[in-house]
Amino acid sequence: MIPPDLVFFDIDPEPPRSFDDVIDIAFLLKEKLDELNFISFVKTSGKKGLHIVLPIKKGYNFKQTREFVHQFGKFLAKESAIVVSEFRNSRDPGTIFIDFMQNNRGKTMIAPYSLRAQVHAPVSTPLEWKELKKGLRPEEFNIFNVLKRKNDPGRDYWKVNRRWKWNKMANDKDIKPSHRPIWSGSITIGW
Known about the structure:
The protein is α+β, with helices and mostly antiparallel strands and about 190 residues long. It is built from 2 helices and 6 strands. The protein has a single domain (about 5-180), classed as DNA primase, PRIM domain (Alpha-Beta Complex), CATH 3.90.920. It has a 6-stranded mixed β-sheet with strand order 4-5-1-3-2-6.
């Protein structure tokens, strides 16, 4: 089995939440990731949400990456009342779901620059964090204009030093989940 080489945060709103709300949560997530010295990349999903990815070294499995995103989602849910991290709440009106289940063998993520079969022909587009501003709409990046972009914010993805390491305890299968911190740093989340 091929191990994951990234951690994937799929951020999706439920009405009446908007893309502006997704942007707020994306920046909250980025702030916490930055505090932990993680390098993150953002792209539109081409639909209603955002994808944030962290490059990682090989050596982790999907269970670990899925649990990392799940626990991070739980942490964000404590920081913001509109965030939900459990699938059973993913369709609750007025929420934003941090979909951890996408970190699973066999799951797919829309590739950067992929066309979506939607009105306005949106394209899943890598962005620089500074481009992510209130008022931005995913459909602004579409088949008619995305190739005219002068830069490719995703170009540095494979250049990142994949130095991310799990706390040693996270790999110890004999430790009960409630006692296994997923990382050490300015915040620690147990899982």
